[in-house]
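Progress note, sequence design subtask.
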């Protein structure tokens, strides 16, 4: 008999060891998964394009305003962690920590009835969190509101007094604290308390009182005090529907599921209270092992349909662009003129990277270039904020400060004080000579958690040289500005004015030439080419050389000081011969020439220019 007890004790110790090893292993794997596979820094660099981006400032005023209002603390925390995602390790640690507290809360709910053999259930909320971050759906306000509501409910179940009077006082204290931290988290908290008192503790009158007071508080907040207290579905619609590129159907479903998972678990758990045997199983190692397998199967089942490496591509390209790491961006994007899977903003990033590396004229058609990616039209839904920021960036480079200021202010009004917008507005005002206004924007930028260095950099320059007469960047931009800087200027029609003002306006010159190539307007392209006296290499860039050869071979008569090379003539004749055989069948022409001419202007001209359609 003693041997049997020793064996049972040994098996129980082994089972306990395995139960403790499981959460440690699970959350270690979660941290590495988020760090290496999801890469939270990409979430930060995607902010503003696809997901909710709460502003954050390091100033005492911002702190006081946040903690001086109900619900402000959770908004402050959500903004802080969103900005901390700039650091990859910090983002992974934040997701793992939130998942750990969700796991603890679920274990506490399961502990009410001490149900055995279902420990894997406590990992389901963590799996839901991983699904959201795998799909790059960062919803800090909703997740933190749910988490705080759960933690306050767990505190209620642990420390609630037995007498209804004192239980009511304790509930009011917890509700007041939670209401201050996160107004919307109170709804989940009250729902859980009502279910707990109604089903588990059988205090029907107390549960009914809490329900009535909860509904009264909700109605008073909404319609009497005008406090922003809304159920989860309103938050989901607001955050996902209004601020994402294409709201995936799984994201709101996961959030709804996560929200209602806990009340449902409490109901099922409470109904099973007292019905479970508490003896140690004969084979104590079996249950934890099976739970590990079940947990692994659930994780793979949930994450596999959501995991899509293609989602990282635009975010990674944007990350390189925001850091101005142009060579790395081009290397990561890869030269693939046949890929049309990139969206407009990805291709625009590539165009800007080529411009900054002085390779736009040479390598423009090595990527899936398009006119829309250069001009960024208004009719591209879901990207409007990003369009405004990029247009502001482009027009600053060309010296069109009035247009750039208009785009920047529109973004500021509609989407908040993003770091790049603040810097653009500061630069615009420095170019215009309005130093006081520039200082205001730089002062706000200097309070940014991540980009404060940019604000302090310009403020230090202004302190040493208030007129900025010695600053090379500002001096150059001032030399580009038109005398009449019309906010409604049409760039396509006024490149000539910009170049007349300053023939060394690199951005206006290269974007103008690119636009004529992308529209297939070789007459204007050839005429504009006469403005070039020389190139660094002493010859035309490859795209220009091919375009000029094609123009001559198709009967173009405009005079040009440049002559295409013999190689471009030969390639052009060969391509035109194949095109003649295909008899205007664009699909047949594409397949017949893509291997040899895929990165050439010849193929683009006949397949993609608007005038050829």
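Output:
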């Amino acid at each position: 008999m003693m041997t049997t007890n020793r064996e049972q004790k040994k098996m129980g110790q082994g089972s306990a060891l395995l139960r403790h090893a499981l959460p440690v292993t699970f959350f270690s794997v979660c941290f590495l998964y988020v760090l290496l596979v999801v890469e939270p820094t990409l979430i930060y660099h995607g902010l503003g394009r696809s997901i909710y981006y709460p502003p954050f400032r390091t100033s005492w005023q911002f702190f006081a305003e946040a903690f001086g209002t109900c619900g402000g603390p959770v908004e402050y925390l959500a903004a802080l962690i969103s900005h901390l995602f700039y650091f990859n390790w910090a983002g992974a640690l934040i997701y793992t920590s939130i998942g750990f507290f969700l796991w603890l809360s679920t274990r506490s709910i399961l502990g009410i009835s001490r149900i055995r053999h279902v420990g894997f259930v406590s990992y389901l909320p963590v799996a839901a969190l991983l699904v959201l971050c795998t799909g790059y759906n960062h919803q800090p306000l909703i997740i933190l509101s749910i988490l705080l509501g759960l933690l306050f409910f767990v505190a209620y179940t642990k420390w609630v007094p037995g007498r209804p009077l004192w239980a009511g006082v304790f509930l009011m204290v917890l509700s007041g604290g939670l209401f201050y931290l996160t107004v919307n988290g109170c709804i989940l908290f009250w729902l859980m308390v009502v279910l707990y008192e109604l089903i588990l503790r059988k205090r029907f009158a107390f549960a009914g009182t809490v329900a009535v007071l909860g509904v009264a508080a909700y109605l008073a907040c909404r319609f009497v005090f005008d406090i922003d207290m809304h159920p989860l579905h309103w938050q989901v619609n607001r955050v996902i529907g209004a601020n994402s590129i294409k709201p995936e159907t799984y994201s709101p479903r996961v959030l709804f599921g996560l929200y209602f998972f806990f009340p449902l678990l409490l109901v099922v758990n409470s109904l099973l209270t007292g019905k479970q045997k508490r003896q140690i199983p004969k084979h104590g190692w079996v249950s934890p092992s099976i739970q590990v397998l079940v947990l692994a199967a659930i994780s793979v089942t949930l994450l596999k349909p959501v995991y899509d490496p293609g989602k990282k591509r635009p975010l990674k390209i944007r990350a390189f662009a925001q850091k101005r790491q142009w060579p790395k961006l081009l290397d990561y994007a890869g030269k693939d003129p046949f890929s049309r899977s990139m969206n407009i903003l990805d291709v625009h990033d590539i165009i800007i990277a080529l411009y900054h590396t002085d390779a736009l004229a040479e390598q423009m058609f090595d990527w899936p270039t398009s006119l829309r990616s250069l001009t960024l039209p208004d009719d591209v839904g879901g990207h409007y904020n990003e369009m405004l920021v990029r247009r502001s960036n482009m027009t600053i480079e060309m010296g069109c400060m009035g247009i750039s200021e208009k785009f920047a202010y529109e973004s500021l009004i509609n989407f908040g004080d993003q770091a790049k917008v603040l810097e653009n507005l500061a630069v615009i005002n420095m170019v215009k000579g309005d130093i006081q206004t520039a200082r205001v924007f730089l002062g706000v930028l200097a309070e940014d958690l991540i980009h404060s260095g940019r604000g302090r950099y310009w403020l230090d320059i202004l302190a040493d040289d208030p007129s900025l007469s010695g600053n090379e960047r500002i001096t150059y931009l001032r030399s580009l500005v038109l005398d009449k800087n019309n906010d409604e200027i049409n760039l396509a029609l006024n490149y000539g004015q910009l170049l007349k003002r300053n023939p060394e306006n690199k951005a206006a010159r290269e974007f103008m030439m690119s636009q004529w190539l992308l529209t297939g307007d070789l007459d204007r392209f050839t005429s504009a080419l006469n403005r070039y006296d020389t190139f660094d290499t002493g010859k035309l860039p490859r795209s220009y050389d091919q375009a000029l050869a094609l123009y001559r071979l198709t009967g173009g008569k405009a005079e040009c000081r440049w002559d295409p090379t013999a190689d471009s003539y030969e390639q052009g004749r060969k391509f035109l011969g194949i095109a003649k055989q295909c008899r205007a069948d664009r699909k047949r022409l594409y397949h017949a020439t893509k291997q040899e001419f895929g990165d050439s202007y010849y193929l683009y001209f006949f397949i993609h220019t608007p005038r050829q359609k």
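Confidence is low (pLDDT under 50) at residues 48-52, 236-247, 276-286. Work on this subtask will continue into the next period as scheduled.
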